[in-house]
TrEMBL record:
The keyword Zinc applies. Pathway: Carbohydrate degradation. A divalent metal cation binds at residues 32, 34, 65, 174. It comes from the Bacteria. It catalyses: D-ribulose 5-phosphate = D-xylulose 5-phosphate. Its cofactor is Mn(2+); Zn(2+); Co(2+); a divalent metal cation. This is Ribulose-phosphate 3-epimerase. Belongs to the ribulose-phosphate 3-epimerase family. GO terms for molecular function: D-ribulose-phosphate 3-epimerase activity; metal ion binding. Its EC number is 5.1.3.1. Keywords: Carbohydrate metabolism, Cobalt, Isomerase, Manganese, Metal-binding, Zinc.
Amino acid sequence: MIDLAYSILSADFAHLADEIATAERGGGTVCHVDVMDGHFVPNITFGPPVVAAVRRCTRVPLDVHLMIEDPDRYIADFAKAGADWLIVHQEVCRHLHRTLSSIREHGMQPAVVINPATPVETIIEVLPMVHHVLVMTVNPGFGGQSFIPRCVGKVEHLAALREEMGLNFRIEVDGGVSNDTVAQVVKAGADLLVAGSAIYAGSGDPAKTESNAVEFLRRANAATRSLA
Ligand code: DX5
Ligand code: ZN
């Protein structure tokens, strides 16, 4: 089953509730929320109050991507805000096992994310405890960047490890995933697809956003069928 995790980073923040509803009419099944602190990444976005506001707009799982230093300090706040899935970067967690355990203890599903320069080997030990692994296909910080093709190899590697280790974590991709790149990540094994600019495209036109989502999913599902 393919899930479209629409990223509200590219939405019109002045009409967030409408933008969320539009993405879901187009088939979006997960809401991806990018939290940035201006330290780990060179951009600042939003924190727990906005996550809580988004929570009131939708019933789909909130997939909260923390691009912040010291995520442990904020786990309780994001749990309270209504995050379902909480993703932390391997690169900022000195005690990754402890952080992922704490996320689960707070009632959320833990997930881990690796940057383009971070190898899969660095997270093998925690694969049995995660709901999903996010493979960044751009350097985190901004929407609308170009997909880095080399990262697809990490999706394949994770899919092979999942099989070998008898696990069932999901594989998510984020960054530059578009109509042109979606087939290759699905064929490599990704089934949780983050799309920001490919869906919203800065158009502010709901009909366009909805049809973008429909077309994106059509291509993703076609790539799945071609696997069978
Ligand atoms: C980037 C964020 C992404 C971003 C993706 O650091 O993690 O979730 O919204 O945007 P696109 O799909 O435009 O590359
Ligand atoms: Zn993200």
